[in-house]
Amino acid sequence: MKRPSRPKRTRHRAAAKSRKRPSLAPDQRKTLESAIGYRFKDEAQLTQALTHPSLIDEYHGRVGFSNQRLEFLGDRVLGLIMAEILINKYPKHREGYLTKLFHKLVSGPTCATVGERFSLRDYLFMDASMRSNQQSQYDKAVADAVEALIAAIYNDGGIDAAERFIKKCWVFDDLEQGDADPDENPKTRLSDWCGANQTAYAVYETLNTSGPDHAPVFTVKASVEGRGEATAKGGNKSEAERAAASALLDLLEKT
User: Fold this and answer.
1) 205 flagged as catalytic
2) Residue 2 counted as domain residue
3) What's the predicted TM-score (pTM) here?
4) Is residue 160 part of a domain?
5) For burial by CB atoms within 10 Å, which of 13, 94, 104, 189 has the most?
6) What is the mean pLDDT of the segment spanning 51-74?
């Protein structure tokens, strides 16, 4: 008597269990490790970091199959290392300045840019739909894999190895070039200058208000004790203060 066949779903699961999980070819692994500046002792760490969650069902994987848990850890390792890098690089800057730069450096778009530097997407294991699906703003799959890769390096080689990878591969120069935003509030920039130069913070004084009620003109003086002062006008007090701060910054940065 012919035995009844197993349900289709059961057959698929059984086949998936027997499938060998994906891994890099030796030449691929060598190329990637050369690009990131780290050679893995445990190849399983690298393989997991490169495995996108889209393959979990296909391989009947469990919680540790994809790179999601490594991504969670890598985000924290990246944050710790980046905070220490910024503290050491900018010893005179205030917490607000460091926080703004920190969020840029650990953001998803920045992580994606890092991954693009060594074509990380080409090494990822993902299903066909994800392979063709790249985000319009930034490649989230690559960004997540970069964080997972940091965790894999940390697990395999420790915090020093993870730090060396970040210092080698991160986009510090590109971000720092755009750090001084010309549209940023000059009062904030002036406060940052005061913090960096360990001086008293700026004081704003309204010297005069003139003109008709429907079109007043405010004259404001911005001063930093012992360093200089500048006066400017504006259609309201806030505008005049920003103009005075900008003028004072120009003066301070020339001296």
Assistant:
1) no
2) no
3) 0.65
4) yes
5) 189
6) 87
